[in-house]
Write a structure and sequence with these properties.
This protein is of the alpha/beta class. The protein is built from 15 helices and 14 strands. Helix 2 crosses helix 15 and helix 6 packs parallel to helix 7. The two termini are about 40 Å apart.
């Protein structure tokens, strides 16, 4: 396998970005895939790294299990000039031993101050059991400090017996990985993951997600009649969500308000279940309802649609709202987000969710809350998250 040196991708300009070692950091991000638009965590890494470089830090992004890079490429570098980032992508079809060897060499060349592992179990192993990750990363010879960002933990053990067994193994794998790398800074995206990690004897800090869909300036809201409400779904529609109860409640409110129409839009990849569900919903007898599946769109188109909708609807369970990039995008664009899948695991935070004014929970107060809900000015969380990330690294718990 040919090893591409970072000299092929690092320009003198890029190196000069990090000349002040007292104030600026060299940061190496490790994730599963960096295929643009096809991997949520990969998009997260690219977006965060670009924002951090605006603050003067130098970032190297490495995908160590990229399913979008073929065996013929083995390692695929991206020219610095094309994305403004130093990017290397290791093919998932290459042997792990070779990948870890090359990873260690590239990190030795880059000399990072911090290595940040962006962790999702299934990003590094098809069955969600990345056992090889611990031993491979632990052998990397580097003076860098470790950071781990937990995007996903072990699966829910309450689903069935198979999930119970997988969950137990995944928990062992995750805890041993964290113990082996001994991160100076440990992050989680939401309070539920923080709680699970605390129960395992760890001390994670919540690092809020930001929207991967940038707020597009210059897009005016489309003038629409006040008698029309637009509801938007973004991304996968979960099979466990049963839509009829929610739609019935919305129908009741729409009749009370004498709305002329409720338009439901599905954007992004809704999944096989979502496509089947949408076909079924179009057949339902709701005279005021109209359903449109728009599918994959450009980021500018998505931003425009979010900006011109009245409500977002997520099928993510309430205790995992903080891990959802689609929810983050809705919030960033000012939408109140309807949450139909309430979980007993989030009862400790339900009050905070309601008090924020950002979420409309599908409970006994739903119809009154829907009437009170309002849109907020758009808000970009990215700069705040980038600054907190650096502060947490400089002042680890």
């Amino acid at each position: 396998m040919r090893l591409f040196s970072l000299t092929f991708t690092i320009s003198p300009l890029a190196l000069s970005m990090n000349s002040d070692k007292n104030h600026h950091l060299r940061l190496a991000f490790l994730c599963g895939s960096l295929e643009p638009g096809c991997d949520g965590v990969g998009d997260y890494v690219r977006t965060l790294a670009l924002e951090l470089q605006k603050l003067g830090h130098l970032c190297l992004c490495i995908a160590i299990n990229d399913r979008y890079v073929g065996q013929a490429d083995s390692i695929r570098p991206e020219p610095f000039s094309s994305s403004g980032l130093l990017v290397l992508r290791f093919s998932s079809s290459s042997p792990w031993v070779e990948r870890f060897t090359h990873l260690s060499n590239q990190l030795a060349y880059f000399e990072p101050d911090w290595i940040s592992l962006q962790f999702v179990p299934y990003a590094f192993h098809d069955k969600g059991l990345p056992i090889q990750l611990r031993s491979g990363l632990a052998k990397i010879s580097s003076r860098a400090n470790w950071n781990i960002m937990i995007h996903e933990l072990w699966v829910d053990p309450s689903v069935n017996l198979a999930y119970l067994l997988i969950s137990k193994i995944q928990k062992i794998v995750v805890c041993r990985l964290i113990s082996s790398l001994a991160p100076k800074a440990l992050h989680a995206s939401n309070p539920y993951y923080q709680l699970l990690l605390q129960r395992a004897g760890l001390a994670p800090i919540i690092l809020p997600l930001f929207s991967n869909i940038s707020l597009v300036s210059g897009l005016d809201e489309v003038a629409k009649k006040g008698s029309v409400w637009i509801f938007v779904f973004f991304g996968a529609i979960h099979p466990e969500w049963e839509p009829m109860h929610l739609l019935g409640a919305i129908a009741s409110v729409s009749q009370d308000l004498q709305l002329s129409q409720c338009l439901f839009l599905s954007i992004g990849n809704s999944g096989a279940h979502g496509q089947r569900l949408w076909t079924d919903l179009e057949r339902q007898d709701y005279p005021l309802f109209r359903f449109q599946m728009l599918g994959k769109l450009s980021k500018n188109q998505i931003s425009s649609l979010l900006k011109n909708s009245d409500f977002g609807i997520t099928t993510v369970p309430s205790h995992l709202l903080g891990k959802s990039g689609s929810v983050a995008a809705m919030i960033a664009h000012g939408l109140p987000v309807i949450v139909p899948r309430l979980s007993s695991k989030s009862k400790a935070w339900d009050h905070e969710l309601k008090a924020s004014g950002r979420f409309v929970l599908f409970d006994s107060d739903f119809e009154a809350a829907l009437l009170k809900a309002r849109k907020y000015p758009p808000h970009d969380q990215l700069p705040l998250t980038a600054r907190q990330f650096i502060e947490d690294l400089r002042s680890p718990a």
